[in-house]
Amino acid sequence: MPIQKVIAFENIPEALEIYRKEGKRVVQCHGTFDLIHPGHIVHFEEAKALGDVLVVTITGDDHVNKGPGRPHFNEKLRCKSIAALESVDIVATVPYPAAVEAINQVRPDVYCKGKEYENSNADPTGNMANDVTAVERLGAEIQYVGSVVFSSSKLLNNHFEHLPEATRSFCRDLAEDFPPETFRKTVEDFAKLKILVIGDIILDRYSYVQVQGLASKNRVLSTRFIKEDTHLGGALAIYRHLRQFSENVDFASIAGTEPWLPALLDKAYIKPGLFLEHDETYTTIIKQRFVELSKRSQELGKIFSINYIDPQYANPSLENRLIGKLAKRIADYDLVVVGDFGHGLMTQKLRDFVQAESPFLSLNCQTNSYNHGYNLISRQYQRVNAFSIDEHELMLDRAKQNLEPEKDLRELSESLGSKVSWITRGAKEAIGVDSHGQTATCVRLENQVVDTIGAGDAFFSLCSLAAKCDLPIALGTFLGQLAGAQAVKIVGNEESVNKAKLIKGGMTLLNF
Predict the structure, then answer these.
(1) Which residues neighbour 352 within 8 Å (Cβ) at sequence distance 6 or greater?
(2) Angle formed at CA 457 by CA 388 and CA 307, multiple of 5 degrees
(3) Per the confidence metrics, is the pTM higher than 0.70?
(4) Nearest Cα to 477, choosing from 432, 436, 414, 429?
């Protein structure tokens, strides 16, 4: 017998060897098990009855995808609670997001999941299918157990203080109209949309360095180079987010003819030659940021940036060619999403065209260091169906230092004839208003920030889908905040918003 029940993941095979030599039958259960309740106890007892040795593997803290405030109990406490049960023989934390690695490590004779997983559609992540494949590859069997069912998420949401009261109150009210399964179906329905994304291609280059101090002979910062990564940003990031929710997404933009560019664009799965125009005189935009990993927090420290961008780009021939292509097909789309970064693609002629011809236009008109004070939404556009703006952009547009966020947003929305609009206020909250006089305020859903670059684009992408589907303003704001919560935990635009994680996080928060 092992000296202790809680063991390291890598020690599982050795711990099980003695049992296997004795011909014992090994059973495995896997999950988060955030709050141990009677349903879990019965689940483990019924699993143990199928064999001789019960191994429980739990998802490590860093890989729990149940939204903010989760796990409520850290992995050490979860292991300790499970190990206290008589039916359990071994407990280990799994340093992976799914169960496949745990199954391969334990190599069980029987793998047990809750009865709710007998329906393959019950798992929004789709991971259960991978579990089944892994178990079958080992020649093991799968059993669905648990005659008593409770929900850890529902218990935590109703009886614990793992969420700020503002978040809990918002989610409880939203859950009255959108309980978990309704929320899931609503998000799944985005797949029906045919979407066109128009906007500037930006490549986000992250140069990781370690600051060594000031050079001894002059006052210049000295750093040591570590590594470099390049991500698909700008409107390409919006495109990649939306492709998670619908396969019917096309992309329109311009790019240079740099030899290294095609390999990067291939990662975005853009249909070649559709609306992507190349110009050998155009410099594909690169925003290079020199960053340092913080020793005090998860957030990246940004030191310096360099932009590779044409000072004044104009190509009337290419502009006309792109508009001509768009004119033939733009009416076929349900939703046109414009990411106007003010870097040259969105000329006045193209802006006028999308406003006049888009069946439903959702806009994000951004202010940045390149266009500061020039790319204001009310100066560049006269009609949109939906838009998202950040607090600084609204201040510039309204020429006000002290905003009244809801009032100023509503005034701007009415001037543009917008059905819905949003303002993001960084770490504070997001506010949404609609043309029916409704307002929704949702505080941020993630406190552990790695990088805020790209979070606004993620928020805007989901809000655009909600706007086109005419969802209530509260749900649209919630979806935007869920996307932003994922994005702030990702460096730049290294990854897109993950649909399965968004659904699971939303369903967890709405489980009352």
Answers:
(1) none
(2) 115
(3) yes
(4) 432
